[in-house]
Amino acid sequence: MAKPDPSLLDPARYPFSTEVDVRFSDMDVNRHVNNVSLSNFVEEGRVRFHRASGYHAAIAGVGSMVASVAMEYVGQAFYPGTLHMHAGASHIGRTSYTLELLITQEGRAVVFARSVMVCTRDGKPHPIPDAFRDAVAADWGVRS
Hints:
Elements: E1 16-21, H1 35-53, H2 55-58, E2 63-73, E3 82-92, E4 96-105, E5 108-121, E6 124-125, H3 130-140
């Protein structure tokens, strides 16, 4: 993935935000938060978005999987500190949707990630439930 469009590094574009404290164990020998730890925070942000947006409830009876994740490390994060995660859906197809997630610390962009989620049933792509599609259209899409 190329460096993200600078407009995607604006927290105001995202309808969802949450925060999590950096743990001492997230720090590496370079005294910043390790990239592997940052990928764990991307996962945490994605799960929190799914719970808040109703995705988990909407896909009851249907599976979901991460088809791809692309991450750009655009800054450093440090311990101690708090990471702010901002997320929103940017594209909804028939069976998949794209989630964009920005992590900031003290107003600085640290990570931009784009994940593609696919709804599945019996190991095959399955249409995204209308309940989630409607929720994204109303409240959970990335703002332009």
